[in-house]
Design goal:
five-stranded antiparallel beta sheet; 25 helices; transcription regulation; nucleotide-binding; 694 residues; aromatic hydrocarbons catabolism; Sigma_54_int_dom_ATP-bd_1; alpha/beta
């Protein structure tokens, strides 16, 4: 509210002409009221402390009732008002009058309730006039309705937009005057909103709000504006922005340096390649050597080219200048293209070198690793560093991730590559034979033993490397012997009287969490710590999907030669294989590729065939459920549930859509997926790759 509408208490109060004291008689008080012509006064004590207020009627009633002193008829005083209080901001209270004090707290007047109400009404009227002026002068259209949907106010811009008049509109039902009916919804729900709508060829934007009185919706007001021109300009601007963005994208995508200059050689636009060619100087105008070709293109109004040697690098450039011809035929700007021929020669040399390396790699024996994913590159880098030192290694990872291949790589990168490399699958050796297989035996050590005795795997690897796969399968009583080998590099053959010194580098591998086995008492903690000197965790194939195309191509070539049957995998097939979760990792991928070579009838493998071979979609059958053997009903029900959940997740990609396919709630599906150990990895919404942990 402006200053002209502000009214202060000091402007309307009655200045203090006299005060009365609480000990004064009612007769004296009556004479004072008459003498000064007042309606009310402040009551004080001798110390001039305000103790109450009294009105004329209070004195008269007191006299009529036989009371004698002011103290008997006065009323308690509310806190004094300040002369600077705004009339419309104060709560007057229930008394007939209030004392008024100045800045120092000195009593200067009184304000009666009648004076306050009169002044408040005047301020309110002035405010209404201001609001009415703003309402009518507003650029936006404003329209309000009552709780029954009848129009209660409409300003001139709204009259113009609705093609009506105030006299015609006031009191009419909303939709009898205007087409949009959103204000009725605001009255019904009590919730405001913003909306853009179209009437004919015009576009409007409106903000609608409820009118609340004492917590009840009594109407609604809408403020709206015709934004047709703004919308058109906005669309035009978006089109221009899109064109500029496309042109900039084309410029940045070019392998040439590109700049646009005017006749004076000032650069108005350039790409990053241009700055790179000129060593990032971000020059504002072309060099003197290029200025000549700019003027030649503009004067001749046709493209021209020249060979130029860069002064900064000495590289040979081809510079092309293409003038921009305006509609009136003038040419004031030119597009410059700079191609660095040195870079092209370098690329050609690199291409030849790449071809040579590829040819050499194709001829190498399969002793190299195939990878591209950063996660696998990190593992190989650690393995390369570990190979250089004679330290015990523990390779961990899921079954089929390539632990044996990595162990073979470490051996070939180590100083022991010319010595034996013995691979032992501890899970494939019967427990009764494991000690004799690992450590050997003397002649006659047990019934059926060879006459000359036998070297164990550790002796066979003497001087070289031994790879102990599935190390978790070694029984506890042999773990003690293995720990002794690692600590002292001595073995004891079965039946031998003295130990034998050996020199072996140990690489162990496991697909089980040894820490959990240690906690469960199934694996010795001291052996675990001895093996875990340098652990290397190989990521599962689903975490290094960038390797899948390389692996597919590698094994495609191998099986094409083996089966004399070339196959081509489409992009869709590779995408489907990258989407698959590969619970069996690289081993499963190799088996899948070979199965495709064996069973494929077409030379082209597409995503549908991949889905069929990887069981990503159900095989067509007369019955959706097939029974292969008799198992307990509860177990069969759980297995069918598990398979259905996996298939639904593969097909639907998200839990929500999969739940819809299966006819259950999403929460039910998530709970059952957790029950059966089915995980999801990444993807839109809530994950799209699913696999069973078993």
């Amino acid at each position: 509210m402006g200053e002209e509408m502000a009214m202060m208490v000091g402007d309307i109060m009655v200045k203090t002409k006299a005060v009365i004291f609480e000990s004064d008689s009612l007769d004296e008080a009556a004479r004072t009221f008459v003498e000064y012509g007042l309606d009310g006064m402040v009551v004080c004590r001798c110390s001039e402390e305000i103790v109450g207020v009294v009105a004329v009627k209070d004195v008269l009633f007191g006299l009529a009732q036989g009371k004698t002193t002011v103290r008997e008829v006065m009323r308690p005083s509310l806190p004094p008002l300040s002369i600077h209080d705004r009339v419309e901001a104060i709560e007057f209270g229930g008394g007939p009058l209030r004392p008024v004090v100045d800045e120092s707290g000195r009593l200067v007047g009184v304000l009666t309730k009648e004076q306050h109400l009169t002044a408040y009404a005047k301020v309110a009227q002035l405010r209404l006039k201001h609001l009415d002026a703003i309402f009518n002068a507003a650029h936006n259209g404003i329209l309000s309705i009552d709780a029954k949907g009848r129009i209660t106010s409409i300003n001139p811009p709204a009259e113009k937009m609705a093609r009506t008049t105030k006299e015609e509109a006031i009191g009419k039902f909303l939709t009898d005057v205007v087409i949009p009916s959103g204000l009725l919804e605001v009255v019904r729900t009590g919730k405001g909103h913003t909306e853009k709508y179209r009437v004919g060829k015009r576009v409007y934007i409106t903000n609608r709000s409820p009118i609340i009185d004492e917590g009840k919706v009594v109407g609604a007001v809408g403020v709206f504006q015709d934004i047709s021109e703004i919308e058109f300009i906005s669309n035009e601007l978006e089109t221009v922005k899109r064109i500029v963005n496309e042109l900039q994208t084309v410029m940045e995508a070019s392998s040439d340096g590109i700049a646009i200059t005017d006749r004076s050689g000032m650069i108005t636009r350039r790409n990053k390649k241009w700055d790179a060619l000129f060593l990032g100087t971000e020059q504002e105008r072309v060099t003197a050597s290029l200025d000549r070709v700019v003027r030649q293109a503009l004067d001749g109004r046709q493209p021209c080219s020249m060979l130029h040697q860069g002064t900064e690098t000495g590289n040979i450039w081809i510079v092309s200048a293409v003038p921009i011809i305006e509609e009136d035929g003038r040419a004031e700007r030119v597009v410059l293209y700079v191609k660095d021929m040195t870079e092209m020669e370098q690329l050609r040399s690199e291409l030849e070198e790449t071809k040579r390396l590829l040819h050499m790699l194709d001829r190498q024996e399969e002793d190299h690793l195939i990878y591209r994913a950063p996660a696998m590159a990190h593992v190989v880098n650690i393995a390369r560093q570990a190979a250089a030192v004679d330290v015990t290694l523990l390779l961990t990872g899921e079954s089929g991730t390539g632990k044996e291949e990595l162990a073979n790589y470490i051996w070939k990168q180590s100083a022991r590559r010319a010595r034996p490399f013995v691979k032992v699958n501890c899970g494939a050796i019967p427990e009764t034979l494991m000690e004799s297989e690992l450590f050997g035996y003397e002649p006659g050590a047990f019934t059926g033993a060879a006459k000359k005795g036998k070297k164990g795997y550790f002796e066979q690897a003497d001087g070289g490397t031994i790879f102990l796969d599935e190390i978790s399968e070694i029984p506890l009583h042999l773990q003690v012997k293995l720990l002794r080998v690692l600590q002292s590099m001595e073995i004891m053959r079965l039946g031998a009287e003295a130990p034998k010194r050996i020199d072996v580098r140990v690489i162990a591998a496991t697909n089980k969490p040894l820490e959990e086995l240690v906690a469960a008492g199934r694996f010795r903690a001291d052996l675990f710590y001895r093996l875990n000197v340098m652990p290397i965790a190989i990521p599962p194939l689903r975490d290094r999907k960038e390797d899948i195309p390389l692996l597919v191509d590698h094994y495609r070539k191998r099986f094409a030669e083996k089966y004399q049957k070339p196959l081509v995998f489409t992009d869709g097939a590779l995408a489907a294989m990258m989407d698959y979760h590969w619970p069996g990792n690289v081993r499963e991928l190799v088996n899948a590729v070979e199965r495709m070579f064996v069973t494929a009838v077409s030379p082209v493998i597409d995503e549908h065939q991949v889905a069929k071979w990887l069981h990503l979609e159900p095989e067509p059958a007369a019955s959706p459920v097939a029974v292969g053997e008799i198992i307990p009903l509860k177990q069969a029900t759980a297995e069918v549930e598990r398979q259905l959940i996996i298939k639904a997740l593969h097909k639907a990609k998200t839990y929500r859509r999969a739940a819809k396919l299966l006819g259950v709630d999403a929460s039910t599906l998530v709970r059952k997926a957790q029950k059966y150990g089915i995980q999801s990895w990444g993807g839109e919404e809530d994950g799209f790759h699913a696999a069973s942990r078993d």
